[in-house]
Amino acid sequence: MSKTTILIIEDNNDIRESTAEILELADFEVIQAKNGRIGVELATKHLPDLILCDIMMPELDGYGVLFLLNKNPQTSAIPFIFLTAKAERLDMRKGMEMGADDYLTKPFDDVELLNAIESRLRKKTKHQAFYSKSLDQISGLISHASGLKELQKLIAERKLRHIKKKQVVYYEGDAVTGIFLVIHGKIKTVKLTEDGRQLMTGIYTDDQYFGIPSLLLNEPYAETAEAMEDSSICLLPKDMMEDLLAQYPDIGRQFIKILSNNLMQKEEQLMQLAYHSVRKRLSEVLIRLSKQEKSIEPLLLKVSRDNLAALAGMATETVSRILSDFKDENIIERKGSQIQILDLHRLQQMKN
To answer: In which band, very low, low, confident or very high, does the pLDDT at 136 lie, cut at 50, 70 and 90?
Structure first.
């Protein structure tokens, strides 16, 4: 069985060599690079299992290394840990948003180093095993086992991206980079009006894909995607997906079915905005959210007034007033930031 290979990119000779010694004693295979440019070349050539990389380096800094590796499909999924003497929050956030998996602040000891590496390698293994669930949506009409196998391989090789609540995945008008799969959490897509108001066009939860229309049309993203809670997502790159869809048409047809279902939901939303009263519109939103919720209590919703307003296409003040009415009528109960639906039948029977 081959050893796990780790690439160290560090311009300080003492730190690089001492780190390599620790890893070799722990039975890892170690490759060393004294600057970022050499590091990118070695990563591309050897495809290590994990990369440790300093931030402040000559010729090419750590951010540049991560950027170039993320552009290469062969290296973009390799777990990446920054080594830095700078512990400022801004630096950490920048690195994480670019796709880094973890940080180690120098000086670090043997235990910190090995724990960070083992933790990241364990997460990679779990990540690959988890992805088989995401194929449930698209396996129904695939007649060629090789097509499903290739899609499973593509998903399993991608790196998880962890994003915080309210962090933007992409903005409306950004060039399409691919489609996204929600591994855990909740992502919303919104359109902004000229006066700055939001209309929420979709909510995507575990094992659901978003960004499909832009990929199929090869057009910029038509909506802004933002995390509603701390989430984990995976990007399936545009070039890889186009190749896969070209080789296996059945996969493409199933993605079109997912897209068609999303379009039907949006058409229903437009009908509600056009013809339903504000009470009816808000009741429909609560019903729709209750169907999506995967909690132990399916009728306990965690959603903000702002997001309810964006979904229903009304002012936040109007949402507050109607929720108060629903509470007085014993249809719902407020529990802090949560809404518990007490009488789903009355919501479903609500008239204009």
So the answer is: very low
Report pTM: 0.52
Helices (H), ranges, the chain: 13-25, 36-46, 62-71, 89-98, 110-130, 145-157, 212-217, 238-247, 249-275, 278-292, 305-312, 316-328, 344-348
338 vs 301: CA distance, rounded Å: 5
Tokens at residue 34, please?
């004294």
Residue 32 · residue 20 · CB < 8 Å? yes
Burial class of residue 246 in the structure, from the number of CB atoms within 10 Å of its CB (0-12 exposed, 13-18 middle, 19+ buried):
exposed
First to last CA, the chain: 68
pLDDT in tens, 268-297: 666 666 566 788 888 887 887 777 665 444
Q: Who's near 284: CB < 8 A, 6+ residues apart?
A: 272, 276, 312
Does 107 sit behind a cis peptide bond, omega within 30 degrees of 0 on the bond before it?
Answer: yes
DSSP conformation class of 143? -
Are residues 101 and 114 in contact, defined by beta-carbon separation less than 8 angstroms?
no
Give 79-97 pLDDT, tens digit per residue.
889 888 765 555 666 666 6
d(CA 330, CA 53): 57
